[in-house]
Amino acid sequence: MNMNRCMEALRPLWERREELYNEIIDREMISVQLYDVSGKTLPGCSLTVDCKKLERMISDRIHDGINRFFHALKTTFKLNDRLKSIKTVNIFLAGNSCLSPIVTELFDKEIQSHTSDIDSSRTFFNLYPPLGCDKAFEILGRDDNSDIMLPTGKTGVAFGLIDSRPGGRIKVISGDTTEPGETKFRYYIGISRRDKFYPLIEPCEEYGKWHKFLPADEYMEIYFTTLPDASTNKLAISETDVRRLRLPVTDENAYVFICASGPHEITYTAALESDIESGNYLFEAITENLNS
């Protein structure tokens, strides 16, 4: 509860609500009602705020989210040939957090960066402000005489879900399943190199396809994550999960081989490179659930 109270008191720093934002910046302090360990209220607690440090943290966190959005989008385009004919991607911001000018500023920077990667001669991305805010009315227009509740991005999601329900008027083709209806693999699997994550297996990997991993020593470490920027070779290894596994059989001439075997599962074994396709393994293949 104390954490939530502080979050709400500091929210104007994120959203840049002018009057409250200036008040926090000028005073470098917030006043908030907190609770002690017994649940007794402590009204009017004054907490000092390092505004510059907090704003840097907010900016860094927003940038990470936007950066991962673009990496996820790039991966989606790479995995789906049908998307290569698309001329424009419209990005609709939604929610109170997106009212922050920091979000728009950082999105604009990333759009410039990624547009040059795709085609600098045209505008590939269009960024729209959150529905319901004044800037959105300037762009999209507004009927001031209407007594109907004004829509927001969340309204659009709600109507979209209704229209795209099974049997609805919009057909949804899921990118998370294969043609037989099987859910695709969800993880990046890799190794640590200079404290960075290097992927060897990526999401949507074909099930049952063996990948050479590491020498078949007694112990091995498997790093995995669902973060989209794992494909860049720049993700800090500390941001991934790890499984430390012991092999039942070792051989200095053999290697560990890994394959995706389910949405949240990998299977591993050890074999000589010449024997892996013939199924001549050092030990029976073991399945590991990454979701447990």
Features:
292 residues; alpha+beta; 3 domains; four-stranded antiparallel sheet; 6 helices; 26% strand; globular
| Main sheet attributes: strand count, strand direction, barrel closure | 4 strands, antiparallel
Number of domains: 3
- What structural class do you assign from the helix and strand content? alpha+beta
Uncertain parts: none
Spatial gap, N to C terminus:
29 Å
Give the proportion of residues in helices. 25-40%
Q: Can you write the helix and strand succession as a string?
A: HHEEHEHEHHEEEEEEEE
Order of the strands making up the biggest sheet? 6-5-8-9
Radius of gyration: 25 Å
- Beta-strand segment tally: 12
Q: What's the tally of helices?
A: 6
Walkthrough of the structure:
With 292 residues, the chain is α+β, with helices and mostly antiparallel strands. The protein folds into 3 domains: 2-49, no CATH class; 59-142; 188-289, no CATH class. The chain has 6 helices and 12 strands. Helix 1 (2-15) crosses helix 2 (18-27) and helix 3 packs parallel to helix 4.
Would you summarize the structure shown here?
By secondary structure, the chain is of the alpha+beta class. It has helices at residues 2-15, 18-27, 51-79, 101-118, 134-140, 153-163, and strands at residues 29-35, 41-48, 89-92, 125-128, 188-193, 196-201, 211-216, 219-225, 241-246, 251-262, 265-271, 286-289.
